[in-house]
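Support reply, case 0932

Customer input (verbatim):
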Amino acid sequence: MIKVDPKRYLRIVEDPWYRGLVSVQDIISFETAVFWKKRGVKCLHLPITTNAVSSPMGLGSDSEPVAIELFGVRTYLADSMQFMLEYGCRLAKEGTYYLMPSFRGEPSDKVHLNQFFHSEAEIPGGLEDVVRVADEYVRHLATAVLREHSSLVEDLAGDTKHVEEFLASPSARITFDDAAEMLTGEEDVIVQHDGWRSISRKGERLLIERLGPAVWLTNFDRLSTPFYQAASPEGRGALCADLLLGPGEIIGCGERHTTGDEVRDALHDHRVPPEDYRWYTELKDAAPMRTSGFGMGVERFIMWLLRSDDIRNLQLAERYNGVLTAP
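Our regenerated output:
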């Protein structure tokens, strides 16, 4: 059971850390809008409830959905609104984005929040397009923070060298297969499941140490990713990539299936009941379109930026599953 300080909201009012956090949150929100405006990508205003979570219980799921009953109807608090961004791409030709809360059911820890801010976007094109844009986005934010708040970052993080080093060098890139070979002999890094593999946080940190400061880890085993990720041409891998920086993964991105039949096949392979995703497959039947998208955990980006070792210190108002907190 998580113990919370009932007077935390009073204690942090005069804390320089949280005053600084407000400034960092503000510039991230502002510069996110600036970044996408220049590219013609449209912001969507979306609900926080959904009947089609992006990480359903099935192969490749990396989070637990948060189910609620809303006026007698079972629904979910959004773990992501990626599917709606894909829908939005049919309405906005340059792509769509949002910055909004996401909800996860698994326990929080030093790098994982139950409620966090999600910066997500979906654009026309394939994996290479979205990797390029996502990398540019993180660099845009880092540049803006140094321009506007370098003294603040220095006060809270100790210095700005990690940001400067990131901006001075291109992000490295390695496939999952090559990373697994590189990490051969290391314990507890490549986790074997029934027919697919995943990488641990320790493994992510080792890749950052060896290749960093920023590393794109690409082409995970297809069944290790959610059903909506398109398969690579040979079929075994997925057209996906994670950006590893600071505490580990801060961005996940991938190319989506183009057609409804591709989605149906993936739902079957991932053992996900298709009924909740009928509208999604019908959309791709009616309006097939090649898109790719990414999601960045804002607090994980701030963890790296401020060199925080605990993401739970990046909440202005604490929120933990099963715990009532004020305000």
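We compared this against your earlier run and they match. Two observations from our side: The chain has one domain: 8-314. Residues 8-314 form a domain with the BirA Bifunctional Protein; domain 2 fold (CATH 3.30.930.10). Please reopen the case if you see a mismatch on your end.
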